[in-house]
Automatic annotation (TrEMBL):
CDD domains: LbH_LpxD. Keywords: Acyltransferase, Lipid A biosynthesis, Lipid biosynthesis, Lipid metabolism, Repeat, Transferase. The gene is lpxD. This is UDP-3-O-acylglucosamine N-acyltransferase. It is an enzyme of class 2 (transferase). GO terms for cellular component: membrane. HAMAP family: LpxD.
Length: 355
């Protein structure tokens, strides 16, 4: 059985090309080196480009066989003789830019079926409006009144509910569903994501939980990316909104009426309760819990596994349960650790024998 290469490089780059992409001048006397692929420090060979900007990988850098390495100045001395060090201010950003040149097809998911146009076996309602170059894979369902913009891909088994709008150059992955929603341009919805289902709303009446109709929408602005298995509930009476450029990891729950600003980062297994608000440029680490109706200010960062149960000011770094300023949280942890390490004796309530 042959071993497939899913993202083969679409070009090769000279060292000068790499320097230009990284936005730095190529020093005089640099070798005439052709780089055909990118690879990790451990796996790179003489025609590969690697990068490094983390002290944990200094030893791997010393042993690498890469033809060239994007490197920050502080680690340049550790580059071995056979590898050309291309010093850049931000190695990871430069590496990402080079990857985009070598593998443009990896920037946005394409049709898993390799299709073009509306395929046999898909179900497109006659009142749906599709611009040219839309791809609809087999078993996908596009409901009545749906509008889909040029260049968008609807993956196999995806469902686009009645009246939904999807902009241009979007991707809706296999098995995803988009209901009661308006999506902007260049939105990526990864496989299995659920957008626009009921918000979780019930009123307790006469000993029973009575369903509260959820009649809002989901609004997703341009350049948003939504991870696999993530769920975004539609609003109860007003819209759930995801701001431009926000990136949402896999397995995130966003409840009804939540408003998320522009260019936020929300990492996996985070849960955001109803009517919470995140201002622009907020970062939530993995497994953060946000209670309902709180506001997290612009540029605030919340550490992984924290619980936010009160408003967070702009520009701060908080962590812990309940979340608080990081320095205060660290002092508490240090104090608890110090107390726990103290020896316990009978006078302090230990388990010593009675006299």
């Amino acid at each position: 059985m042959s071993e497939p290469i899913f993202f083969a490089p679409e070009a090769s780059l000279s060292l000068g090309d790499v320097a230009q992409i990284a936005g730095v001048p190529l020093p005089e006397g640099a070798p005439a080196l052709t780089l055909r692929a990118v690879a990790s420090l451990e796996e790179a060979g003489p025609s590969d480009l690697a990068y490094m900007d983390n002290p944990l990988y200094v030893e791997a850098l010393r042993l690498t066989r890469a033809g060239a390495c994007l490197i920050s100045s502080r680690f340049a001395a550790a580059v071995p003789p056979g590898t050309y060090p291309l010093v850049v201010p931000a190695p990871y950003r430069a590496y990402a830019a080079v990857l985009a040149h070598l593998h443009p097809s990896a920037l946005r998911p394409r049709s898993p079926f390799g299709a073009s146009g509306v395929t046999p076996g898909s179900f497109v309602h006659p009142t749906a409006r599709l611009e040219p170059e839309v791809v609809v894979d087999p078993a996908a369902v596009v409901g009545p009144g749906v509008e889909i913009g040029r260049g968008t891909v609807i993956g196999a088994g995806a469902v686009i509910g009645a009246g939904s709008r999807i902009g241009r150059d979007c991707s809706v992955g296999p098995g995803a569903s988009v209901m009661y929603a308006l999506l902007g341009n260049r939105v990526i919805v990864h496989p299995g994501a659920r957008i626009g289902q009921d918000g979780f709303g019930f009123a307790f009446v006469a000993g029973r939980h009575q369903k509260v109709p959820q009649v809002g929408r989901v609004i997703i602005q341009d350049d948003v990316e939504i991870g696999a298995g993530t769920t975004i509930d539609r609003g109860a009476t007003r819209d759930t909104i995801i701001g431009e450029g926000t990136k949402i990891d896999n397995l995130v729950q966003i409840a009804h009426n939540v408003v998320i600003g522009r260019h936020c980062i929300i990492v996996a297994q985070t849960g955001i309760s109803g009517s919470a608000r995140l201002d622009d440029y907020v970062v939530l680490g993995g497994q953060v819990g946000v209670v309902g109706h709180v506001r997290i200010g612009e540029g605030a960062q919340i550490a992984a596994s924290s619980n936010v149960n009160a408003d967070v000011p702009p520009g701060v770094r908080w962590g812990g349960t309940p979340a608080k300023p990081v320095r205060e949280w660290f002092r508490e942890l240090h104090t608890l650790k110090r107390l726990a390490s103290r020896p316990v004796n009978a006078k302090e309530g230990g388990d010593g024998d009675a006299a």
